[in-house]
């Protein structure tokens, strides 16, 4: 039996703790916040009409088998804890210039039919060809990357890639380039580009291999958890406590002790004595680990290319708008949005809030999260991270957040969804707020910008492991949960 300390009670930390406790280890979790869940945040706003409940982080669950596997590995059944609701449409895409919207779904033939009805037979045939390629990329990734450690480019190069896999993955090609090669309809290209933002990246620079992201969503479905996705954090906490995990909130780890090439424990704020540990699992951003908790200049050097962040509005809306669960309202000029978000420090162009951004609106048809006759809107806009460098924006600047909130509502109105006279309230969450609430540096949602190589799960000291969205295999709830499986398998059982 090893004494294991998990730093951070996000989904990755709780999933790792549950797996390790189920195999006989003594596990303690320290969380700096007063609640568990990390970026899987929640917010409640009370009004005379009733209470509105919001997920302030992820709003879609994909790859449900990953979560079934997690609960079964810890001696339970997912359905005993969570109520999964399949979504159709998974996402409603609303394109500029009017014309039909496109509803995605988990039936490939049906989705192709919907594309054909909206955009014509050629567009449907284009998508089916891209879909076959995406399937090869997904199968190769799932087989060789997503469930094993990848510590360096050498590990990727040593994989026994099949010739067809390499051709599909197209090393050196971007997701944008892949779309332009395969898709003739500009609206389908725009839809494909959007998936780069799932990893916090610019589609003009993101690798073509990210075509596996829409495949995973559309092949295995998109799901909602009744009561909100925050119920996943509740379920994982319950699982941990039932397995004997000690979970301490309001406990900030300030240092990982590691001398002689291995970890010995952690230091807590306000506590003199160190907490001994044989193994430390860090469920915090890799940049925070190597900058603050265990300074390591060489590993820190590769973490400067940060992912995009998000600007969020939480809206209480009276009446019904007829929106789908997930809706994407695209701009006329997608490139202008990415130019604004990432800037171009090399040419002295600073990042800035996009003037005409893509707007994501999530509206759960769930009486558990809003009063009757009302809707709880989660509105997300891609945004530069918090900071004062050229590639960031100081979201704490007086008046900026409220002014940009007005802009986002104006953009929605221009795209046919004007709710400005139906708002009971609005709450604003900027990248600076996400940084403060979760410790995500600059409010970057996914750590470093997306790519095949993420910071390794294996730390530079023996007994140190990293899990979560900033590490391999990447961001998003299923990838974070797979990082927990990878680390727990590497640590191994106590017996």
TrEMBL record:
Residues 12-290 form the Amine oxidase domain. It is an enzyme of class 1 (oxidoreductase). Keywords: Carotenoid biosynthesis, Oxidoreductase. InterPro entries: Amino_oxidase (IPR002937), Carotenoid/retinoid_OxRdtase (IPR014105), FAD/NAD-bd_sf (IPR036188). The keyword GTP-binding does not apply. Pathway: Carotenoid biosynthesis. It comes from the Bacteria. The keyword Oxidoreductase applies. Belongs to the carotenoid/retinoid oxidoreductase family. This is Phytoene desaturase family protein.
């Amino acid at each position: 039996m090893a004494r294991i300390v998990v730093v951070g009670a996000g989904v990755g930390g709780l999933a790792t703790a549950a797996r390790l406790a189920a195999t006989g280890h003594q596990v303690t979790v320290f969380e700096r916040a007063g609640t568990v869940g990390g970026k899987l945040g929640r917010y409640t706003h009370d009004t005379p009409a009733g209470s509105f409940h919001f997920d302030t982080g992820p709003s879609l669950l994909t790859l449900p088998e990953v979560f079934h596997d997690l609960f079964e590995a810890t001696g339970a059944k997912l359905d005993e804890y969570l109520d999964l609701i399949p979504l159709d449409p998974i996402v409603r895409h609303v394109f500029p210039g009017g014309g039909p919207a496109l509803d995605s779904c988990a039936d490939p033939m049906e989705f192709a039919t919907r594309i054909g009805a909206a955009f014509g037979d050629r567009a449907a045939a284009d998508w089916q060809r891209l879909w076959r390629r995406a399937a090869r990329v997904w199968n190769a990734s799932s087989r060789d990357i997503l469930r094993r450690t990848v510590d360096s480019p050498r590990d990727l190069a040593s994989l026994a890639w099949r010739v067809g896999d390499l051709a599909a993955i197209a090393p050196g090609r971007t997701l944008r380039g892949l779309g332009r090669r395969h898709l003739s309809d500009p609206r389908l290209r725009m839809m494909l580009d959007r998936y780069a933002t799932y990893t916090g990246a610019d589609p003009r620079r993101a690798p073509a291999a990210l075509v596996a992201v829409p495949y995973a969503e559309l092949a295995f479905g998109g799901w909602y958890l009744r009561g909100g996705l925050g119920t996943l954090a509740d379920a994982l906490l319950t699982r941990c406590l039932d397995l004997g995990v000690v979970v301490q909130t309001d406990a900030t780890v300030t240092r990982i002790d590691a001398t002689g090439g291995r970890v010995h424990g952690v230091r807590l704020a306000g506590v003199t004595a160190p907490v001994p540990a044989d193994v430390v699992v860090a469920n915090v951003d890799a940049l925070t680990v190597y900058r603050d908790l265990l300074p390591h200049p060489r590993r820190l050097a590769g973490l400067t290319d940060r992912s995009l962040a998000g600007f969020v509005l939480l809206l209480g809306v009276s009446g019904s708008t007829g929106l789908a669960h997930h809706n994407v309202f695209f701009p006329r000029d997608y490139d202008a949005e990415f130019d604004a978000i990432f800037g171009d420090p090399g040419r002295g162009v600073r990042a800035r809030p996009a003037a005409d951004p893509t707007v994501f609106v999530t509206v759960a048809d769930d009486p558990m999260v809003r009063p009757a006759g009302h809707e709880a809107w989660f509105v997300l806009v891609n945004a530069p991270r918090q900071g004062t460098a050229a590639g960031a924006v100081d979201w704490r600047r007086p008046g900026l957040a409220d002014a940009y909130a007005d802009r986002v509502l104006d953009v929605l109105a221009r795209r046919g969804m004007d709710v400005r006279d139906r708002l009971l309230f609005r709450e604003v969450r900027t990248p600076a707020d996400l940084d403060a609430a979760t410790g995500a540096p600059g409010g970057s949602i996914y750590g470093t910008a997306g790519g095949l190589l993420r910071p390794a799960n294996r730390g530079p000291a023996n007994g140190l492991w990293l899990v979560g969205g900033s590490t391999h295999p990447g961001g998003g709830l299923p990838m974070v949960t797979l990082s927990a499986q990878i680390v727990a398998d590497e640590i191994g059982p106590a017996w």
